[in-house]
Amino acid sequence: MLPTRSSSLDPLPPEWAARLSQAVQLALRHAPVDGHHATAVPGLMLIRASAPAQPLPTVYEPGLVVVLQGRKQALLGQQVLRYDPLHCLVVSVKMLPAGQITEASPEAPYLCLRLGLDTQALSALLLELGPAGTTPAAASASAAPASSATCGLNVARVSPPLLDAVLRLLHLLDTPEHLRVLAPLAMREILYRVLVGELGGPLRQLALADGHGQRIARAIGLLERRFDQPVRIDELAAAAHMSPSSLHLRFKQVTAMSPLQYQKQLRLHQARRLMLAEGLDAAAAAHRVGYESASQFSREYRRLFGAPPRAEIAQLRDGAVMVD
Fold first, then answer.
1. Same domain, 191 and 109
2. Side-by-side strand order, sheet with 98-103
3. Number of domains in the chain
């Protein structure tokens, strides 16, 4: 059995249930149908789904995911990370897990909000906090040496202050005249609540120029820019200011895959986007993302997504599969 990194969903205290009920009603109003819903708040996305789903390889951008109703899990290597109304998910660098909604129904759809991570805002807040502005757990994590990598996906208990800040942000969706002034304050508080909590360490490492999170993020950035080209390990190591052997080890600790595996999956995700959004056929998409062999592309696409390119894209267009 794969190891998990959250506990089961405990019974909700009455006051917690009341807060979540408000949040759910607000989210339902602004996400009236299944799918991804951008909001008037930059970086805030609402996601709704009315049925469980099979595991689907996806891209998780850096940010915070707070579930309001239902349950979801991310499969990363040999780990299963479960998140629900009591557990939030923090993504410190771009990750490529398989995501799976495990609890949802038409009567009680899966609902979550996703906040993008602004590294500049994070750095500015850290400057104000200083080392004295942390809890013992966050201080201990942030004091770890830069060479000690942590996973880019982590789950943590949602604290009442964090849920209150999320609820205030959702309420602002009903008062657009106040958004410009108050939404940045609510988002800043949410970021603060995460920073001083048990997952503050990974976020601090991302903001520190010489932290392992920032170093791996730089290597990932190079792979993103040159996903369709061969990239040598020594080029990645130079971008991350690490030795090749250290980069390979830390990269795998953070992402659960090697740089080569990561680049291959980036290519396949990009090809999928090209076929879905721009209508390219498999051969054209394969060429655009750097494949010389269309048959090799088809084999690797099927291995990752579970179906040949044409069939899987048809499922997406028919709404049989929801891209996270």
1. yes
2. 56-57, 98-103, 71-76, 79-83
3. 3
Is the separation of the CB atoms in 190 and 166 below 8 Å? yes
Do you know the residue count of the chain?
Answer: 324
Model confidence over 73-107: pLDDT tens digits? Answer: 999 988 999 999 999 999 989 999 999 999 999 99
In angstroms, rounded to a whole number, what is the distance separating the alpha carbons of residues 84 and 130? Answer: 31
The one-letter amino acid at 214: Q
Pair 66, 177 in one domain? yes
The answer to whether position 323 is within a domain reads no
CA distance 41 to 244: 41
Q: Are residues 127 and 202 in the same domain?
A: yes
182 lies in the same domain as 37: yes
**Residue in 56, 61, 67, 169 with CA at minimum distance from that of residue 108:** 67
Q: Tokens 């267009």 belong to which residue? A: 317
Are 152 and 240 in a shared domain?
no
Choice between 129 and 110, residue whose per-residue pLDDT is larger: 110
Q: How far apart are CA 281 and CA 268, in angstroms?
A: 13
- Quick one: how far is CA 258 from the chain centroid? 19
